[in-house]
Design brief:
DNA polymerase, domain 1; TIM Barrel; 2 domains; two-stranded parallel ribbon; 10 helices
């Protein structure tokens, strides 16, 4: 397991169990060694090979030659008055992304990023106004979770300081499918973070082909950024709808839950914009669109950001909208705004992205590989 000078050490955060076992096999080592290493990193929180006490000294030396366990550099940490924490983490290349920890009674959610910026160009989202700089690697995605758990001081094996992971930070996760899929596998793996499939949620603006691939490749919860019940309005708010319209999106949603546990449902996210998408008529249209599908609607009060012309719907408007949906027996919740005093609320994450005006959806072909 000797690294050549031409090969930089591989960050172990980027390798799921299948890949890590393959690397060990190539080096003539037993596959179970990969399981041991993963257990040390993810279940014991060990970030130093020398601390892996049941690994021989010789093996620890070989590991250090070929691999590393490297987290992003902390730029800033902010703590909201409601307990929400936001970390700005510097990545290779000078960009920085944001990761948010949201503690609540009975649960604690970590909102992680998957891209540096975003190309989806959703008009109500601050992240999208920057454009896309690049995809994050699997190692960079997973390192956010490990960094947060270590920073929060939890016992990785016995005390979960993070109960839920949501891919709802910067970026469109399914547009970075090649890196997000192994990251999900590490989160769910018993030798990884050991998360339940219902506690890892991938949010998408509606990349239909990758929704189908996700269903086939891994079993995880799905959230869809819907925000409008008709194509005319959704085209304005979520431009990817011009590529994959609501009819195609809903068909993909049906396929995603088909044959799964009867409790499986998709969460439909709906940001509430004053005078734009919050009328009773649109609530009725939304109820009709979802029909008898296994669905939960999460109404999200709009979080303002500089340069936006949108305003948050009035509380009574949000309540009335939700009541219409609930009257149609659609499970409906209103997301409590968290961390808005530190710009950590939904739609406010911006990080520090170079070349902010390039790579927006309206400027590039809508194709992802």
């Amino acid at each position: 397991m000797t690294a050549t000078s031409a090969n930089a050490p591989v960050n172990l955060f980027g390798l799921d169990r299948t890949e890590l076992r393959a690397r060990f096999a190539e080096a003539g080592e037993k596959p179970f060694r990969a399981d041991q290493i993963m257990h040390w990193i993810y279940r014991r929180g060990q970030g130093d090979f020398e601390g892996m006490s049941n690994i021989s000294k010789e093996m620890r030396g070989k590991l250090a030659e070929r691999f590393e366990i490297r987290t992003p550099e902390l730029v800033t940490e902010q703590v909201s008055q409601d307990g929400t924490r936001k970390w700005v983490l510097r990545l290779d290349g000078g960009n920085a992304i944001e990761t948010v920890y949201i503690p609540e009674e009975g649960r604690a959610t970590l909102c992680i990023s998957s891209q540096v910026g975003c190309a989806m160009d959703c008009s109500f989202c601050s992240t999208a106004q920057q454009g896309l700089n690049r995809n994050m690697t699997t190692a960079e995605i997973i390192a956010q979770v490990w960094f947060a758990a270590r920073t929060l001081g939890g016992d990785f094996q016995n005390e979960r300081v993070i109960s839920n992971i949501v891919f709802m930070g910067m970026g469109e996760p399914l547009a970075n499918y090649g890196a997000v899929l192994p990251a999900i596998r590490i989160l769910l793996d018993d030798f990884g973070f050991g998360m339940s499939k219902r506690r890892v949620t991938v949010s998408t603006s509606g990349l239909v082909p990758f929704m189908d691939r996700l269903r086939d490749d891994v079993d995880t919860a799905l959230a869809v950024s819907l925000h409008a019940p008709n194509d005319a309005l959704r085209n304005q708010l979520v431009p990817i709808n011009r590529k994959y319209n609501i009819e195609e999106l809903m068909a993909a949603c049906r396929r995603y839950v088909e044959g799964k546990d009867r409790k499986t449902h998709i969460v439909y996210e709906y940001v509430m914009l004053d005078g734009v998408n919050d009328s009773p008529a649109l609530a009725r249209d939304l109820a009709k669109l979802l029909g008898n599908m296994p669905a939960k609607v999460n109404l999200i009060p709009f979080n303002p950001f500089p340069g936006s012309d949108y305003k948050r719907s009035k509380p009574e408007t949000i309540r009335a909208f939700g009541e219409i949906l609930r009257a149609k027996r659609i499970i409906t919740t209103t997301r409590k705004t968290r961390g808005d005093d530190i710009d950590a609320a939904c739609g406010q994450l911006v990080g520090r992205v170079q070349s902010k005006q390039k790579n927006r959806l309206r400027d590039i072909p809508v194709r992802f590989t």
